[in-house]
Amino acid sequence: xxxxxxxARIKITYEYDVYNDNNTTDDTSDxxxxxxxxxxxxxxxxxxxxxxxxxNFIQPILDNVSLGENLKTGYLKGGQGxxxxxxxxxxxxxxxxLDEIRxxxxxxxxxxxxxxxxxxxxxxxxx
Length: 127
Prior knowledge:
There is one protein chain. The chain has 3 helices and 4 strands. With 127 residues, it is α+β, with helices and mostly antiparallel strands. It has 2 domains: 9-43, no CATH class; 59-126, no CATH class. Strand 3 (91-92) and strand 4 (95-96) form a beta hairpin. The protein starts with 8 loop residues before the first strand and ends with a helix.
């Protein structure tokens, strides 16, 4: 079965209460709670990823990734479905940074991620 994500959608139908005063704001004796229904639709077209592991990397990269340790270098190939997962709030000298931010009530308004492309490795991958 092949999924057509360009036409895929998730439709959520929900029911909720609506206060109905029967257009008599001064008289509450005829007020009732009516049921209403709405639909919420999430379209799945657009950015797509999959978690299928492919061995399209050159051997030095595959060797580095297979060590099972936290990598200092992230490897991401271009094209549809490419994804890199970054864990930004890992332990640092025994202190969980995210817990510290939460405990101090800090509000982060902006965060930046700088990506460096290793040109030597880029040339190896293109070959």
